[in-house]
Amino acid sequence: MTTVLRAHAEDQYAEELALLAKDDDRVRPPGWKLSPWAVTVYILGDGEGITPKYIGPRRIVEVAVATLATDRALLLLGVPGTAKTWLSEHLAAAISGDSTLLVQGTAGTAEEAVRYGWNYARLLAEGPSREALTPSPVMRAMAEGRIARVEELTRMPSDVQDALITVLSEKTLPIPELNQEVQATRGFNVIATANDRDRGVNDLSSALRRRFNTVVLPVPATAEEEVDIVSRRVGQLGRSLELPETLTGLEEIRRVVTVFRELRSGVTEDGRTKVKSPSGTLSTAEAISVLTNGVALAAHFGDGVLRPSDVAAGIVGAVVQDPVSDRVVWREYLETVVRERQDWRDFYRACRDAG
Q1: For residue 77, which phi and psi values (nearest 5 degrees)?
Q2: Coil, strand, or helix at residue 269?
Q3: Which residues contact 35 (CB under 8 A, 6 or more apart)?
Q4: How far apart are CA 141 and CA 184, in angstroms?
Q5: What is the DSSP letter of 335?
Q6: Do the strands 180-183 and 172-175 form a parallel or antiparallel pair, or are they unpaired?
Q7: Which of 10, 28, 30, 280 is least crowded, fewest Cβ atoms below 10 Å from its Cβ?
């Protein structure tokens, strides 16, 4: 049994990737492990042996895959929790067989994370050389003809973002200290993710934005679609974390999704009542987290059945990010909407007690 808490996509779904590669007789772009058609099947599933990794409009995935088959980089844009990171990982796994060439964007990300750094012990002992150079994930992807992933691009400082311009336009990474350069080999491309909702966002320069083809990932269009996504991911996470078997009814999942969707949109499901929205995003990813935590509570401290009391604390914690304004929003929603639903009485009492 593996001790890895979370396997990389190419390892976790190795059998599916091998099955697709075996039967894939379509044209593959240079350096690709699968054809664009097979990559799309891997992402969306086929209803048989290939499980869906992303649930959403097929055209979005097709445009993303087609972009990566050209010389343009791909920018996955969307609000937090719309599976940008998840999709980028699986695209890299299917195309390159390697999703680990990752740059994590933060306010403290240095230019070396995009270009290269130095082994200073060797640099002092031997002087500048290729052996003393420490390649970044982007540099390795260029040399090996693979996909590089840049997470939260807009969180990186602007000067670090712009280090990508030469890489994306010229497909070359200069090393002026050695009077050399690294040229990208076929199969190289970049998938970046970004959102403009969180605080601390650095807008992309127009020069850098032009180097990307932007694909916007929407929030799930319908409640049924979001329930499907949440159900699948909660089940997958429960198995990967080896949580005890728990009876997870759709009723509780649907209830959590409904609460998140109504607070997110500012109106109840039937369109009759307007509600205030809290400061948080209340994304699908947060709904998955709330329910996974509820499953753990039910399994370890309950009777093995997911109940309102198991998810109530998680919902309150997700909604009330600002202890002053969000608490008012949540209390008003609880008393004017949740309390009036006859079949939500247990849920109302659990949330009131948790709050």
Answers
A1: -115, 140
A2: coil
A3: 24, 26, 27, 28, 29
A4: 8
A5: I
A6: antiparallel
A7: 30
Across 218-244, b (16+ Cβ under 10 Å) vs e yields ebbeeeeebbbbbbebbeebbeeeebe
Which residues face 332 on adjacent strands? none
| Cα 258 to Cα 226: distance, rounded to the nearest angstrom | 9
Alpha-carbon span 163 to 114, nearest angstrom: 7
At residue 295's C-alpha, the angle toward residues 294 and 299, to 5°, is 120
- CA 291, 297, 303, 309 torsion-angle sign: negative
Measured between alpha carbons, how far apart are the two ends of the chain, in Å?
40
Q: Do the beta carbons of residue 190 and residue 73 sit within 8 Å? A: yes
H helix runs in 14-79, sequence order: 14-23, 36-44, 58-68
Tokens of 277: 């929205």
Cβ burial of 300 (10 Å; 0-12, 13-18, 19+) is exposed
Largest CA distance in the chain: 76
Residue pLDDT tens, the chain, 355 long: 467 888 899 999 999 999 999 999 999 999 999 999 999 999 999 988 899 999 889 999 999 999 999 989 999 999 888 899 999 999 999 999 999 999 999 989 999 999 999 999 998 988 899 999 999 999 999 999 999 999 999 999 998 999 999 999 999 999 999 999 999 999 999 999 998 776 667 788 899 999 999 999 998 888 999 999 999 888 888 877 777 776 667 888 999 999 999 999 999 998 989 999 998 888 899 999 999 999 999 888 988 889 999 999 999 999 999 888 999 999 999 999 999 999 999 999 999 998 7
Question: Long-range contacts for 299-303 (Cβ within 8 Å, ≥24 apart)?
Answer: 299/243, 299/244, 299/245, 299/246, 300/244
- 10 Å CB burial of residue 32 (0-12, 13-18, 19+) is buried
Query: Do the Cβ atoms of 294 and 234 come closer than 8 Å?
Result: no
Q: Please tell me the distance from the alpha carbon of residue 161 to that of residue 113, in angstroms, as a whole number.
A: 11
